[in-house]
Each structure stands twice: as structure tokens, then as C-alpha cells.
């Protein structure tokens, strides 16, 4: 018994739409440029795409830190504000590294040519990632020595805070 497959018109429409979306979507660009929207101290959105800054780790959403004198503050939000200061009004360019952190690509991003990961570690609102951020260690050391950002008071390194609070570590 020979059966001939005859697709329904709904199936044909779905197939055509799928093929057209593939044809017009094109490859994802290795470089994305535009104004940035800050998500948190290490994540931003440029041209509708989210990127995690390479080589750094910033405080988590529920993480608090202490100012000198012991008063706690929302260091996650302040770190995001620090990144906002770096990107305000600037043309931001992100170049994918090929790594992923969860569903987001890791990228080297700059604001008008200034490396944002460098800026976040130098201002003390992010730390050099112990696994991938070797090139930012010297900026972190400077921030620590000068008491910039997180280094003004007491805080827990984000990767230690995640481990102690049962928060899944980001995947790089």
C-alpha cells in the first residue's frame, strides 16, 4: 500500500514562515553597538541583546554590603548604578567572547573605547572573576588599595555569597 504524504495548508504555512524567519534572521553578529541599558553590575542590553561583561563578578540581587560603621546597603543596586555611570550617553560596543553565562553571551564591552570590565573593577563595584578575570586583577588591587566602591566597607565576594546562599553559580 503506497501512501502519499500530502501536507495540510496549515502545515505548509508554518513551514514557509519558519523558512522565511531563518532567511531574514541571518547569523548573530559577533559585534553589537548601540546605547546600553544596564541590567545589573555585570550585565547590559545593547540593541535588544543582553551581554554579561567578561572577566568580572558583581554583587548578586539579594546581596548586601556594609559601609564603614556597619550600616548595610544594597551593593547590587549601587554596582548597577556604577555601570550606568560608565555607559551614560556613550556608544557601547560588545564583542562576544564565545563563552556563555547561562543563556547570555559573555562579551568584551566598551563605552566609547573604554573597557567596561576594567572600569567596574577599577571603581571597585565588581571584582575580577577568579577563573576568567586575570587581566582585571591589577585594577581590582588598585580599587582595594584606594578604598573604591565595595572596598570602602565590608562585603562578601559574589562567588562566596552565592555558595553560602545556595544560589547557582553563573556558567562561563
Topology readout:
Layout: H1 9-25, E1 31-34, E2 36-40, E3 43-46, E4 49-53, E5 56-57, E6 65-66, E7 72-73, H2 75-87, E8 92-101, E9 104-111, E10 114-115, H3 116-122, E11 127-128, H4 137-146, H5 158-164
Helix pairs in contact: 3-4
Describe the structure.
It is a single chain. This protein is an alpha+beta fold and about 170 residues long. The chain has one domain (about 30-165): OB fold (Dihydrolipoamide Acetyltransferase, E2P) (Beta Barrel). The chain has helices at about 10-25, 75-85, 115-120, 135-145, 160-165, and strands at about 30-35, 35-40, 45, 50-55, 55, 65, 70-75, 90-100, 105-110, 115, 125-130. Strand 9 (about 105-110) and strand 10 (about 115) form a beta hairpin. Residues about 15-25 have low confidence and may be disordered.
Q: Secondary-structure element sequence?
A: HEEEEEEEHEEEHEHH
What's the CATH topology name? Answer: OB fold (Dihydrolipoamide Acetyltransferase, E2P)
Total strands: 11
Low-confidence stretches: 14-27
Largest sheet: 7 strands, mixed
Mean pLDDT over the residues: 86
Number of helices: 5
Distance between the termini: 54 Å
Helix-residue proportion: 25-40%
Q: Could you tell me the strand content as a percent range?
A: 25-35%
